[in-house]
Amino acid sequence: MTNIVINENSGAATGGVRDLLRWEGVALFVGMTLFYWISGGPWQIYALFFFVPDLSMLAYLAGPRIGAGVYNLVHATIAPLLLALAGIATAEPIAGSIALVWFAHIGFDRALGYGLKYDAGFRFTHLGRIGRDATAPATAENPTTGNPIKAA
What is the pTM of this model? Predict the structure, then answer.
């Protein structure tokens, strides 16, 4: 097995860049929540949809590669942006409301350090490792072959 070290060569943000990305998450969360409030959207929709994107973690039951792909698809800003644009194009206000909640969720996750995932497992993100032993050296192996996995 190999140690997976998160540093400036690993593909994960470190230092001031990581801090900036997390503060950007705070700004996204606060900004989208404020826009939602200004838009007059129903708070029941906000409460109902805020944690829905986290259901994508269930894809990890199919393995880390599929789990990371589905999680990243749902936690990148592209999908809620497309939903917002579709809502504008169709004059459907609920689409805009859901998109704002979705953006707020993504910002909330980023602020907490939950970044986009690498195939090495749920704990390996573009914002660094997460979890109670995030600073300890880690090892990972491919669950199918048992071979060591190198983190990006």
Answer: 0.77
